Amino acid sequence: MVISARNGLTGKIDSIKLGEVMASIKIAVDEPAIITAIITKESAEDLGLAEGDKVKAIIKSTNIMVEK
């Protein structure tokens, strides 16, 4: 996938908390640090996210998206 965002941090999913509508995805990145992305539950399920998955946190303006 090609996207316009240029700020991406590769890491591994540390934890996932699914709510009724939203999902909180904690990603351990190389620094070491934790980035929290708030995405829709539907997106988390569509991506098939699971703890331990290697993902990229893509930062654009005030949003953090998750790429798997």
From TrEMBL:
All copies of domain Mop, residue ranges: 2-68
Protein localization: Cell membrane
This protein's record includes keyword Ribonucleoprotein: no
InterPro entries reported in the protein's UniProt record: Mo/tungstate-bd_C_term_dom, Mop_domain, Transp-assoc_OB_typ1
Coiled-coil portions: none
Main location: membrane
GO biological process: molybdate ion transport
Gene3D superfamilies: 2.40.50.100
Ubl conjugation keyword on record: no
Protein name per its UniProtKB record: Molybdenum-pterin binding protein Mop5
Membrane topology: Peripheral membrane protein
Keywords: Molybdenum
Any one GO CC term of the record: plasma membrane
Origin superkingdom: Archaea
